[in-house]
Amino acid sequence: MFLWFHRLGSARYFFGLAGRLTPWLGSLAAVTIVTGLYLGLFVAPPDYQQGDGYRIMFVHVPSAWMSMFIYVFMAFNAAVGLIWRIKIAHLLSTAAAIIGASFTFITLATGSIWGKPMWGAWWAWDARLTSELILLFLYLGFIALQSAIQDRGKAQQAGAILLLAGVVNIPIIHYSVLWWHTLHQTASITKFGVPSIHSSMLAPLLLMWVGFTFFFFYLLMLRARALILEYERSSRWVQEAGAVK
Amino acid sequence: MSFAEFIAMGGHGKFVWSAYGITFAVLAMNLVFTLRRLRKSEKDVDHLRSSDRQDKTES
User: Fold this and answer.
1) A107-155 pLDDT, tens per residue?
2) Which residues of B touch A105 (CB under 8 A)?
3) From CA A215, how far away is CA A59, in angstroms rounded?
4) How far apart are CA A105 and CA A120, in angstroms?
């Protein structure tokens, strides 16, 4: 286990692994997203209250899940990077940041578009909406902080501390709909108990979520490879032929 | 269901399609920029390697 952990931490090993994983992750993402779109747009029936407008859910809810998952993933890597001084962990946080910010932006934008016909407003200072907006600022703050500090080691440490401090926002986002009864509806799907939506709507939702997760890891592996090449471009294994085509 | 009905989404067409449009535009942009950056870093490594070889042959 430790040996595996150690090997995974080596940039050279990780570079090869990421290269072998990308075709799989990319094709799995494409297949699940296309299937999810088909089921969500053509097969699932209209909602009895919202008509066809509810179909925004199939992109909005998985994006929202991703926005929180990627943040937790980054904070976990920040902790691993700080405690065990594993460079790859910091590199993964850096690589994931822009993807997390993108999913957070998608969540806010699609939520706003969904809010207009259903709530009558593009935006409200509702607890869920506000905490999700803070999440976007955390991502952007992390990206800005990393690019503002010249020394890579210091930039990674400062970024990691920001990520760990910001983790407090994640349970706030999750429980905001229960703690403050404002505008946003509560969860329809929980880990415990039966989901309160029909399986014809649940299937595309879960497929889109799985698809977005594959797509995230696909992008992450591509970005990690680019970063490894940028960080290690003068090291011997990169320079020796065969590492890069 | 006709094609026009599908596009109309029961009157919510512009909301549904703009939400899907933004989602996939942002995801596609992520992919394009990532692939472009990967190509660039691969090219930089190649460039460094060939300039290294030149240094060695010159000295």
Assistant:
1) 999 999 999 888 888 888 888 899 999 999 999 999 999 999 999 999 9
2) 26
3) 13
4) 21
Q: Is A90 touching B (CB cutoff 8 A)?
A: no
Instruction: Please name every residue paired with A47 in a beta bridge, in sequence order, or none if there are none.
Output: A51
With vertex at residue A221, the alpha carbon angle to CA A8 and CA A142, rounded to the nearest 5 degrees, is: 95
List the end-to-end C-alpha distance of chain A, in Å, as a whole number.
31
Measured between beta carbons, which residues in chain B are less than 8 angstroms from residue A143? none
Locate tokens 């910001």: which residue?
A166
Please report residues of A whose CB lies closer than 8 A to that of B22: 106, 109-110, 113
The answer to whether B36 faces chain A, any CB pair under 8 Å, is no
Which residues are bridge partners to A36 per DSSP?
none
Residue A161 vs residues A94, A167, A170, A245: alpha-carbon distances, Å: 13, 10, 15, 37
Query: How high is the ipTM of this complex?
Result: 0.88
Q: Check: CB of residue A184 under 8 Å from CB of residue A79.
A: no
Amino acid type, B42: E
Question: Do the Cβ atoms of A217 and A73 come closer than 8 Å?
Answer: no
Q: How far is CA A108 from CA A123, A129, A181, in A?
A: 9, 7, 19
pLDDT digits (tens, 9 = 90+) for A203-212: 999 999 999 9
